[in-house]
What does this fold into?
Amino acid sequence: MAFETLSDRLQSALKTVTRKGKLTEKDVDVMMREVRLALLEADVNIKIVREFINEVKEKAVGEAVMKSLTPGQQVVKIVNEELTKLMGETAEGLNLASKPAVFMMVGLQGAGKTTHTGKLSLFLRKKEKKNPLLVACDVYRPAAVDQLKTLGKQLGIAVFDKGTDANPVDIAVEGIAYAKEHGHDLVILDTAGRLHIDENLMGELSQIKKRVSPQEILLVVDAMTGQDAVNVAETFHKELDLSGVILTKLDGDSRGGAALSIRKLTNVPIKFIGLGEKLDTLEVFHPERMASRILGMGDVMTLIEKAQENFDEEESMKMAEKFMNASFDFNDFLKQMKQMKKLGSFSDILKMLPGVGNQLKNVDIDPKQMARTEAIIYAMTEAERKNPDLINSARKTRIAKGCGQSVDEVNRMIKQFLDMRKMMKQFSKMDPKQMERMTGAMQAGGKAPGPGFGGGVPAKKGKGKGRGGFRF
It folds into this structure.
């Protein structure tokens, strides 16, 4: 998980000051020693660590903090601000003004350059309504051209190639000419990489840059290589004057040293991060949101954006109406689960909610539970899905056999569903003041709003084989 180790260490260090009503300089020193170790273990450049520690300490021991009513929270705020500054403060956009806009993707072999060429084209087609053309300029790596063509076919995006015998510089020039003739307003050049940086590679990339004058030169670099990623970025930037970095495999990097070092050392912004193998797992890099995630403050804005992108507003309104009049059936529930899957794993969603990720950190969230619930619903007849009240003991036995689950598991899922539906009907009859009082009481008790699927109540650990985790 991205930044998991760093996040744990930093949050643990900050707890030493947030629990205190008064702070001394010694308290800050103790905390900063832990922060320093956390950053060094995350493979952050030592020069950056020193500067970061000095900046935070200078502000944390200031009079305004020490005399504050909540000094611990002020220190957390300072650390959050400095982390944000370290990673670039705000998200950097792309230069799409030219028609066609030309982007060069550069980097070493194995960083995911070709894959992220496809990811970026899909992202810009969806977000910016672009009509991209992918140009296969890597004529050296075996099957690189075929890989790009396969990606293009999978995404429904055009690919220009001249085979492996043509000159990469000529391919780039001809690809742009083709784009102009065929109405493509974005060209993404998938250039060659090497296992290491050499003179031939840089010479070729410089020639392409000189001939096509790209609006963006984006370095694709593997986050898991830590300080090596920074060294690669420095070398490419010196030769090509990079406009941005795409940091891949961030979901597999529990340390985060590359993300915290690249911007400061190279002054090249991280524009995108890759968070998975699927082609839609590319996100704009927001330094302020990433800092909040690292410190356990959540990332509500990203969650809202994902929901807006994946949820149909009209369909959501219909679902809400069905909830309120208790006509919500298993077909509706199946649709809801499919929409939730588009947001990512449930544990990732929880981490975007302020405070929730930390509270449920030790709860074993079983990702297979949703699949088991789906299997139970698929084993029902259409009539049973539309009218859950039809499901008697004999039908439950048949459903259990059909989905390979126990009758107890089927009973439990159906009961949770009916309880949730009953609760939603009760909510619909409440006046606003009653609703407000009830919500306040639940928040004070630290519980989520309701059992089963909607509220997400942690299941008791150790109860039931293979069922630990979060009930849906």
